[in-house]
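Hi,

I'm pasting everything inline rather than attaching a file, because the server keeps stripping attachments. The sequence lines come first, and each chain or strand is labelled.
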Amino acid sequence: MSKKPRHLIKSIYTADPRAHVYNGKLYIFPSHDIDAGVPEDDTGAHFNMRDYHVYSMNDAEGEVVDHGVAIDVDDVPWASRQMWSNDVGEKDGKYYMYFPAKDKDDVFRIGVAVSDKPEGPYKAQPEPMTNGISIDPSVFVDDDGTQYVYFGGIWGGQLQRWKTGEYEENDDLRAPEEPALCAKVAKLSDDMLEFGEEPHDVVILDDYGKPLLTQDENRRFFEAAWMHKYKGKYYFSYSTGNTHLLCYAVGDNPYGPFKYKGVIMTPVVGWTTHHSIVEHKGKWYLFHHDSKVSGGKTWLRSMKVVELTYREDGTIETIDGNADE
Ligand code: FUB
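And the predicted assembly:
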């Protein structure tokens, strides 16, 4: 594969692709963007998605199979709107989709839905997960089989409303010179339906061992948390949101702290940037999205893939978000 990103699907709009290898194949779990006619605002109300499709590929260069709708917002008893970025984990042959949506009080919560197959259909649990707050859940399985979910997103993702541990309708972030709000991580329970522990903060440190500050908008966490392991190190990657970068930080265990290392991808066309990183058949891939196909409409994105290159020292070569195959 050339090292320029290529679009995977143009028949419908797909975003936030989370990729995993199940049964030897690449499965992709994206959001399904639609033109719902909701005016654009700072909370992201125009991202008014209502269902998820699942995709699979035998390899990253190959054909993309659309398995159709895996679950719709009407199938989720507690949800009202905005089915944002989801992800799917596996245990003992069952598949668990973690997804955010606004509940009937317009608060983002994270729920679980279960299937016998990666492509679904998925059946939702009646209530969101306890402590399942904010957006963008992603699943990471460590070599010992322990499963973790990373999650959270500021601004429209409402993480700032949980600053005190309780929900408050207050969108103030921490002060500019204070440590930035962090993504969260928690082990999953044995039945995969709840967290098996209180969520921890995912702290990102600068070169001097100090947590990144709220004002450090080119490096601090905004949304799209993802974890992968490369040569025994834990790579936490994420979007910086309003500065439109995909960045990464490296640590020695799944909880961190993680030391900031650099930019994986420069800004793409569109406001959001989002991704996953996965190894398949001996190569590493970055799945991501941009808004080129829709002519720049931020809420109508299209998923893409590009091969990722690690340098000898374990750092990642920065990819030009604007280049195309
Ligand atoms: O797709 C809706 C939201 O946009 C996601 O949850 C964010 O990460 C951003 O990509």
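The CA atoms of residues 189 and 196 lie 4 Å apart.

If the labels don't parse on your end, tell me and I'll reformat.
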